[in-house]
Design brief:
With 224 residues, the protein is of the alpha/beta class. Helices cover 37% and strands 24% of the residues.
Length: 224
Amino acid sequence: MGAHITFKRPDGAEANGYLSSAARGDAPGLVVIQEWWGLQEQIKAMCDRFALAGFDALAPDLFKGVVVSYHDSDAAMKEMQSLNFMDAADQTVRGAAQFLKRNGAKVGLTGFCMGGAVAVIGAARIPEITAAVTFYGLPPEQAVKPADVKVPLQGHFASRDDFVTPKVVDGFEKGMKAAGKTFEVFRYDADHAFVNEQRMAVHDRHAAELAWDRATAFFKRHLG
């Protein structure tokens, strides 16, 4: 349904990504950020699904062509640790947002796991973003504090999560409320990465569909 494209970063460098377009020509845009496995087929399928829901969805390739097998967590960790998160947000993700705004539409930002953390960073740093949704991902406080977030944010988190623990989520929610920020947070009796249907050991269909409905409703409310 979609296609691989090249777009410009603000610094003039080229970046690659997967774009899936909605049927309407003036659709709102969504930048979709990958997990630490790279630009997997599952992320491309999410873009296709967002397009069917009425959004132009672009997933930038933050790992520049590297895709890690789901069983190789060590390799995924190596790729994630080698990523410059601020450069990724300020340049690659912002470039994707600017590409989607070329038709004048509003643009949202979402991501999964590592991509969820990038989405929160983008919610604080990318002026083209109108709203953001994170799926089981939060950045460390030294990267972004709750008070730094500039747009409405929605979060979906798992109760059984050793990466973004319920305690971490509670702390971030408290910080958002203290800063007077708009933050909808949903918790699910599920495992980390419960949306990823390609990882059957953790996928929870009921939780995934509920989170999908909430996220798309949130974006339609804020992006039109």
